[in-house]
Design goal:
single chain; 81 residues; mainly alpha; Arc Repressor Mutant, subunit A; two-stranded parallel sheet; 2 strands
């Protein structure tokens, strides 16, 4: 997650593939959900394959995830849920 640049995102599946475990997208999502270091470890840059935000373990939940992505300059192809 630390290698995902500001202003961009990866899907849970893309992260799973990057760690050589392509069938572990759900495990990646669970690891993000348990991240006690958000936003320092930027799990907010990991989203669902359908473009949905998924969850966010940091304080404020999804509202904070949206705000962090917007502040980093992420421009989604479709509106964030």
């Amino acid at each position: 997650m630390k290698s995902i640049p500001k202003g961009s995102v990866k899907t849970y599946k893309q992260v799973a593939i990057a760690i050589n475990s392509p069938k572990s997208a759900r495990a990646v999502a669970n690891a993000c959900a348990k991240n006690p270091y958000a936003p320092k470890i930027p799990c907010h840059r990991v989203i669902r394959s359908d473009g949905g935000l998924g969850g966010y373990s940091g304080s404020g939940g999804i509202k904070t995830k949206k705000k962090l992505l917007k502040n980093e300059g992420f421009l989604p192809k479709k509106p964030l849920f």
